[in-house]
Design goal:
Blueprint: H1 2-16, E1 19-20, E2 23-27, E3 32-37, E4 40-49, E5 53-64, E6 67-71, H2 77-89, E7 93-99, H3 104-107, H4 110-115, E8 120-123, H5 124-131, E9 140-142, E10 145-150, E11 153-158, E12 170-173, E13 178-182, H6 203-213, E14 219-222, E15 227-228, H7 231-241
Parallel strand pairs: 6-7, 7-8, 8-9, 13-14
Antiparallel strand pairs: 1-15, 2-3, 3-4, 4-5, 5-6, 10-11, 11-12, 12-13
């Protein structure tokens, strides 16, 4: 009975939530960039995995007054170069790259950003987890919360607790009420995905805290799949309460 009620809840959430396809600004076989709002873009690159095949991995770009902050690198250095080069053609300077957790779909192209002199930011726990691996390390760490500037606007980086990983953060652009949820937030209809480093007991609690702290969020870009409204938070909470 409990499982049947959960399945019904998921169906109702799927029907009530709004998901959207991005308006494409740039597309190749390796990289897609779509406009989400006037000042935000979703970038999507691809990761070959043994368990899930070719996986589309999202990041977000916040743009203001000719400056950009990028959330999560494309999956490798070559595609990161492609992303930065495209921004150059738009006369947009990347001021910072933010890694939302320590997996390859967030930091796989970090070296390219560093080679371009672009500073990187991450949770201190992300830096600690990467230190034991053969990986490029983010340069600037924070504990729980920090703000960056892009043009005349602020961007929030916030660690609210464990979920997909123990270090996962979200990004929030207050002026447009848009959130980059990364792999902590699921797209509508998605399964639980990669749980290798997950804390499934804390996951719904963490997302509930995010929902309470950012109640006016209008758009959420997840780490995989289509972006949508605040219903993505409800969907993720329900999925991991099972």
């Amino acid at each position: 009975m409990q499982k049947n009620l959960f399945s019904l809840l998921i169906v109702l959430l799927v029907l009530s939530c709004k998901t959207k396809e991005k308006q494409m600004a740039y597309k190749t076989d390796s990289l897609e960039i779509g406009m989400v709002t006037e000042h935000t873009y979703q970038h999507t690159s691809f990761l070959e995995t043994e368990s899930f095949g070719r996986v589309a991995c999202n990041g977000m770009i916040v743009v203001n007054n000719g400056e950009a902050i990028v959330f999560d690198t494309p999956t490798n250095n070559m595609v990161s170069k492609e992303l930065i080069d495209w921004l150059d053609t738009q006369d947009i300077t990347v001021k910072a790259i933010v890694a939302t957790h320590f997996h390859d779909d967030c930091v796989g192209g970090l070296k390219t950003f560093h080679e371009r002199g672009i500073p990187s930011y991450a949770n201190q726990e992300t830096i600690r987890l990467l230190a034991g691996k053969e990986a490029e390390i983010p340069q600037n760490g924070f504990a729980d919360f920090t703000e960056l500037r892009v043009g005349s606007k602020k961007v929030v980086l916030d660690f609210m607790g464990a979920g997909h990983t123990n270090d996962n953060i979200i990004g929030y652009f207050p002026s447009e009420k848009i959130m980059f949820g990364g792999c902590l937030i699921k797209s509508i209809g998605a399964g639980k995905g990669n749980l290798e480093d997950a804390n499934v007991m804390e996951w719904p609690k963490t997302v509930s805290k995010i929902k309470s702290k950012y109640p006016n969020t209008s758009i959420i870009v997840p780490g995989h799949g289509n972006y949508g409204d605040g219903g993505l938070l409800d969907y993720t909470i329900a999925l991991f309460k099972d």
